[in-house]
Amino acid sequence: TLYAPSDNGHVYAFRDANPQDAPLADLTATGPSRVSVGDPVTLQFTARGLGRGASSGVVRIDLPAGLRQPAERPEDALVPRTLWETVGNLAQDGTVNFSVIVVPMAGYRSHDVRADYNYTDLGGRYFYTPPEATLHMEVEAASGGGNGVAWAAGILVVAVAAAIAVFLLLRRGRRRA
């Protein structure tokens, strides 16, 4: 606490605001509410200073099972994972934006992506209650009869099976003759 006398005979006390009563930052998350299996989706996160002081920290993003990042193997996305994005120093009236690209996988009806901004003031004196943001996305059923690759694979399997059957029938017919 800083005490300062004034020329009017009063003494004034100055101190930092309580972190719970005066947060320094907020977090928002935006993205589509409906997604399709296999189509890449961009999720946007924004940490924003609230004009009360600068902050420094990281954003934690909890990706649920079934949302795969393009560089991940599909089997790695079968379990929930946590991503960390460094915000660094956020000015009291500044913003820091970043995005995460994910690809919805088959077998999931919806996804909830949760994020929070873990930060302190620049002096590192206070740990503030992390602001949170949640995105809910519904997975749309495949349109047009399903996945084109699956249809092509099915047609190929049927064609190969038919070719084998014809080959065996021709071979059997030659043995009888």
In short:
With 177 residues, the chain is α+β, with helices and mostly antiparallel strands. It is built from one helix and eleven strands. Helix content is 16%, strand content 44%.
Low-pLDDT sequence parts? none
Proportion of residues in extended strands: 35-45%
- Fraction in helix: 10-25%
Count of individual helical segments: 1
Considering the chains and any ligands shown, give keywords for the structure.
four-stranded antiparallel beta sheet; alpha+beta; 11 strands; rod-shaped; 1 helix
Written overview of the protein:
The chain has 177 residues and is an alpha+beta fold. The chain contains one helix and eleven strands; from the N terminus they run βββββββββββα.
Topology:
Layout: E1 2-5, E2 11-14, E3 25-30, E4 34-36, E5 41-49, E6 55-63, E7 67-68, E8 81-90, E9 95-104, E10 110-121, E11 132-140, H1 148-176
Parallel strand pairs: 4-11
Antiparallel strand pairs: 1-2, 3-5, 5-9, 6-8, 6-10, 7-9, 10-11
